[in-house]
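Sequence design from tokenized structure. All designs in this work follow the same two-part layout: the structure record, then the generated sequence. An example of the structure record is given first.
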């Protein structure tokens, strides 16, 4: 079974991902692609604490993610891939090919970003990057939880 969800969420692993998305999708493994977390045993331990013991957590750098993505996509278990930002997700797509459906799930306020949805804040450059992902073949939608309606990236202003 392929990775069921590619999600950009700056909080990475948290309850909304594990319970809100993981349970309904029957997730058995989570891939977290982030160079900083990959190099931090302490952060990895923190993220593992939020995941049930029956769900494997894999930490990878962007370079490792590009190299290993095909294997994760062909893993027989249902999986979820997380990045903290659009740049990392775009790097995966540039290096490994179209990812399919990319979920913008939680990108929060920081200087220079504007509210696009109550849970999505993007700079104009980040919005352009999300649209480029869509133009290159991915379905890019904002959706914080599975029960909420998905909003196509083209509808974000």
């Amino acid at each position: 079974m392929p990775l069921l969800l590619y999600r950009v969420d700056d909080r990475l692993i948290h309850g909304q991902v594990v319970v809100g998305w993981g349970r309904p999708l029957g997730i058995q493994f989570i891939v977290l692609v982030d160079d900083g977390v990959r190099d931090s045993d302490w952060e990895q331990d923190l993220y593992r604490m939020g995941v049930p013991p029956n769900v494997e957590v894999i930490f990878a750098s962007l370079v490792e993610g590009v190299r290993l993505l095909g294997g994760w996509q062909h893993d027989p278990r249902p999986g979820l891939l997380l990045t903290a930002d659009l740049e990392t997700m775009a790097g995966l797509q540039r290096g490994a090919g179209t990812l399919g459906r990319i979920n913008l799930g939680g990108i929060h306020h920081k200087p220079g970003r504007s509210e696009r949805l109550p849970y999505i804040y993007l700079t104009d450059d980040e919005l352009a990057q999300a649209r480029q992902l869509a133009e290159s073949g991915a379905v890019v939608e904002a959706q914080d939880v599975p029960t909420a309606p998905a909003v196509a990236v083209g509808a974000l202003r």
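The chain has a mean pLDDT of 95. We note this feature because it recurs in several other targets discussed in the main text.
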